[in-house]
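Lesson 9: reading folded outputs for more than one chain in a single document. The general rule is that every protein is listed as its sequence immediately followed by its structure tokens, and records are never interleaved. Here is the first one.
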Amino acid sequence: MAAATGAVGSVVGQLAKLKGARVVGIAGGADKCRHAVEVLGFDACLDHREPDLKSRLAAACPDGTDVYFENVGGEVLDAVLPLLNLHARIPVCGFIAHYNQPRGGEACVDKRTQLLGVILARRVRMQGFIILDHYATRFADFRRDMAQWIDEGRIVLIEDIVDGLEQAPDAFIGLLQGRNFGKLVVRVSD
């Protein structure tokens, strides 16, 4: 689970725990990792800014990975790929590490080759995840269950609030740099 303390990752990880999964998060910084374990209930969380993420992730996932919720890409995905078990699944929600990179080029070809090799050898299912695909048929159930879990304190939602529309550009840059905790909200008035 990359971006473990972000708006999406924090909820996905908590839902996975509610459904009985072992959850290992990846976040940027010791405070975020501590929060993921102590507040969100993850089994472990690794700081991607610390050295040797691949080895630390392998140690945290000795039995490999069956599901990796992708919303970062980059070095985090590189660390996860060797750990994917046979028939692993990767719902792809985003790839923030690549949003400002040009498409194509030699570096992309190398990554695509590695990714395709893992998908083939491990029979991985990788699929885009767009909430609107499920909105009409499952949203009422999700909303009911989620409201109950929030009311019971089983799901913790975090908002990182920045005051003033003039702060929006810096807040957005901070979001792309991983400075926020939880859902980033720009409050424009009371």
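And here is the second record, again sequence then tokens.
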Amino acid sequence: MNDLVIMQNEQAVTTSLKVANVFRKRHDNVINSIRGLLKSKETQQMFEETTYINPQNNQEYPMFYMNRDGFSLLAMGFNGKKALNFKLKYIAAFNKMEKFIKGSNAIEADNEIEKEKLEFKREWLIEMRKQNVNKAHELRNQDVKLYLELGKVADDYQRPHMAVDFRNEAIRTMQALPVGARREYSVTEIGNIIGVSPIAIGKWANKLGVKRDADMSYRDHDGAWRYFPEALKVFQDNALEIQDDDLGL
């Protein structure tokens, strides 16, 4: 699964052959689905038709390259639990390749930069990559909230098996951290873990000095506080006091 996404003309792409193989579909059916999508003008930039040589008979056959948007549109119709897992792996592969391309381009562009500016550029790259990791966390947390909401809807319609699947997907999504990233929690997540309101967590984060320690927390670009595992431990160590305070005891 490591070569799902490749670089083509400085863009992250996959091929119809890879999609057919991963999702266990006939390649000609995948081709037909893509041709159906190409009837819309908006999809023209998502797919590029080419050919490949079948090693079994040395014959030439059609094949398509597709970018992330093209893949997302095509895979939208692939259903089932296994299909969902393959989609998630594809998304991770696209993220990894696009991150590599961005990093490579940034470094290559600086081949002629003056020596005194190299350290500044290095710090800038580190900061940009940190922001990308934070954004990945935010997107992951949005997905978790969606899966949990879908679980509630499934409960309302008395579909317990479907509800369990959605909640398991939320757990898997929470565990799917970007490479080299640290686990982080929102104020609501920590409140749920401790069993108190988000307001109580914000109040005690100030009292315990959590917000003043960069190793325990940071504020994202929307102004919301994010907490690392070190902060969670501090909250857990003081859980009884926080709970009593939240109840007004």
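What the second record shows: The first helix runs from residue 16 to 22.
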